[in-house]
Description:
Blueprint: H1 2-27, H2 69-88, H3 92-103, H4 109-114, E1 130-133, E2 140-143, H5 148-160, H6 176-185, H7 194-204, H8 208-215, H9 219-224, E3 231-233, H10 240-246, H11 251-258, E4 270-272
Amino acid sequence: MKKHIIYTLLGLFLLASCGTQNRVAKSKKKTKKTTRVVKTTTPKTEPVEVVKTTPKVEVKTPKTSTKSKTELYIETYSEVAKKEMERHGIPASITLAQGILESGSGKGELTMKSNNHFGIKCHRGWKGQRVYHDDDEDQECFRKYANPAYSFTDHSLFLTGRSRYASLFKLPKDDYKGWARGLKKAGYATDRKYPKKLIALIERYELYKYDAEVLGKKPEDAKKVTTHNDRYTVVKGDTLYSIAKKHKLSVDKLKSLNGLETNEIFVGQVLFIKPLPKDF
């Protein structure tokens, strides 16, 4: 009887327990899993313009020289003139000045077609090429050279090979004044102003410095060559009248000394203020 009661109570307990679990299960609501989608927006930006650039290419334009044709001539032939001075004893300053004067700084008609920088005529015994050019007379015969350097060498040989120029080689090697006057006296040129023109070129372009280089002199010693009291260098503000008055000359006398036909002068021009010695 007791066992029967125990089994009955145990059964009731189990039933009660099952009912409770069913109610709890039913009370639970089914929930759907939801995913929250967060919308993100990309900030609007202005369209970027892509510019294609070509890399810069530097084009080097040839430099144009600001030097005069005479300065370029000196630059080109100064070494040649110095070599001739070393070999033959003719001042480089004289050689350059003669070349400038005779060849029109290398641009004269005769020089352009013959490479003859010193106006040397054919003369008797010349076996080389020749050209014909109007000079003192129509269609005179002049020597033609394959290279300008040969003209410089022939100029040296021309002077050293003729007895009328022998006295010039007894002068100091940098006495360009004596050489300029001696060339005219010996008959190298018919122009009576020839010495003055050579000396003016030498002093204007300081060609005497090439003589000093060959002789191993210092630059300050080269400058002493041009320290003369027989000439005056024109400065800004000068006139022929003021220069003549300063040196107790008449304007006509000053013009005569320098072969001037007008009253025009320029800064840097070298004017003679005393007559040249009668020997020249």
